[in-house]
Amino acid sequence: MAFNSHNAKAFAALFLPNAEFTNVVGQSAKGRKAIEEFHAPMFEGKPGYYSFKNSILKNEIPRISVIRPDIASVDVYWTMDKCLLPDGSELKNRRGLVTFLMIKENGKWGIDIMHNADLPPAD
Q: What is the distance, to the nearest Å, from the Cα of residue 94 to the centroid of all Cα atoms in its chain?
């Protein structure tokens, strides 16, 4: 999984060239290069950013809705451990939902739009 390798370039490669990414607090990046640059400081654990340097993301089984043979909507519930806030404190028991709009181009699926949402911690 590209996220758990903490490699911004590999993560961004999952997106189409002009894709849009929106995180859990509404910050966005448009285009593969911008998505890579957006995630790089977090994957590197740069001070002052959320740190995913040691994070472990676990995804549940995706729910896929095929809209057309070349377009699908994908919902994935996720959990994350070892996420650090910009102040260095740990955000524990993190969970959320990500929705992807996937498009198949030249026989290969890619992310066109990704929206991520935090959910309240599980009891």
A: 14
**What's the rounded mean pLDDT across residues 109-119?**
97
| C-alpha dihedral, 15 to 12 to 35 to 113, nearest 10° | 20
> Which positions ≥6 away from 112 have C-beta within 8 Å?
15, 16, 19, 20, 100, 101, 102, 103
Q: Which CATH number fits domain 3-119: 3.30.420.10, 3.10.105.10, 1.10.260.40, 3.10.450.50?
A: 3.10.450.50
**Sole residue written with tokens 């994070």:** 55
Structure token pair of residue 83: 């996420």
Query: Where are the chain's structural domains?
Result: 3-119
Report the relative pairing of strands 63-68 and 71-81 from DSSP bridges.
antiparallel
pLDDT digits (tens, 9 = 90+) for 76-101: 999 999 999 899 899 888 999 999 99
Looking only at the bridges linking them, the beta strands covering 56-59 and 71-81 are antiparallel
Provide mean pLDDT across the span 21-47: 96
